[in-house]
Amino acid sequence: MTLPHLNRRFSRQSRGGTVVPDATKVLVVAQPAAAAAFAKDVNRRRYVIRTAGSGAEALNGHRDVDLIVLGLELPDIDGLEVCRSIRAEGGTAIIAWAGQGDELERILALKAGADDCITAACGWREFVARVEAVMRRVRARPAVPETISLPPLRLDRVTRDVRLRDQGIDVTSKEFDLLYTLAANAGKVVSRRELMTTVWGDQWATTSRTIDTHVSSLRAKLGCGQWIVTVRGVGYQFGRGCDEPAATADGVASRRSSG
After folding, report:
1. 207: exposed, middle or buried (Cβ count in 10 Å: 0-12, 13-18, 19+)
2. 99-135 pLDDT, tens per residue?
3. CA distance to 32, 128, 134, 227, per residue, from 117 (Å)
4. Of 84, 44, 86, 85, which is closest to residue 66 (Cα–Cα)?
5. Dihedrals φ, ψ of 88, to 5°?
6. Is the distance from CB of 235 to CB of 225 less than 8 angstroms?
7. Does position 206 have pLDDT exceeding 60, yes or no?
8. Amino acid 141: pLDDT
């Protein structure tokens, strides 16, 4: 069974040729035979389907879809890594497809950023119900901007470009995700737990020094410790750089007492 080529545009037609203007656009990512069979059944539910037979194809073709059904066993890239990469780019709904996967595999998929995880035992009625539930949650999320401009700093989520005073700053993938998460929540304190979940997909590694190491590297690259303010006992907050007065001289803010 061959896998259809990844089209640039979706055909907005359901069974019988009827136009479905608001149909959910689904990208099914799995090995060719499995993807084709899965897509055939999903089509009957009036979803607009596209298929990808590899992780590379998924990473190149997922940006205009509403939902990704992501098989974890791919021929080129580990499915969990594909999940992390897609999640790092934005909030597109992801349902991981673990096949006969055990509990650990499902947990790893959720930690990698999937909104839900199904196995081969999942029936079509359950699948449709899960899609509807995931889409309700996703549509309730605030939109993630493609660019964030907080002069003199500018971040571009599509190109993953960081520019300070119109000069490019070389950052790693995780450094970009960390800085972007803080900038997207400017004015708010982001907890260490939330950062671990958003950037690393690991909500249990709360004692890790990973965040501190990345924050220290970012401060050095940005040339100022006040771009990222430490809120003791809580997490971090996006600052205002060294051109503007910051919370304190050393870039560390004390947690405000409640009440």
Report:
1. exposed
2. 776 888 888 899 888 999 998 788 878 888 898 899 8
3. 20, 13, 11, 37
4. 86
5. -65, -25
6. no
7. no
8. 64
Residues whose CB falls within 8 Å of the CB of residue 208, separated by 6 or more in sequence, listed in order: 196, 202
pTM tops 0.70, yes or no: no
Is the Cα dihedral 146, 204, 59, 173 positive or negative?
positive
In whole angstroms, how far apart are CA 201 and each of 111, 155, 198?
Answer: 5, 21, 6
Length of the chain (residues): 259
Task: Look at the alpha carbons of 29, 33, 36, 39 in this order and tell me if their dihedral is positive or negative.
Answer: negative
The residues near 199 (Cβ < 8 Å, ≥ 6 apart) are 88, 174, 177, 178, 181
The Cα–Cα gap between 212 and 40 comes to: 47
User: In the predicted model, is pLDDT for residue 199 greater than 50?
Assistant: yes
Nearest to 148 by CA among 189, 113, 182, 192: 182
DSSP-assigned letters across all residues of 89-135: H---EEEEE-TT--HHHHHHHHHTT-SEEE-TT--HHHHHHHHHHHH
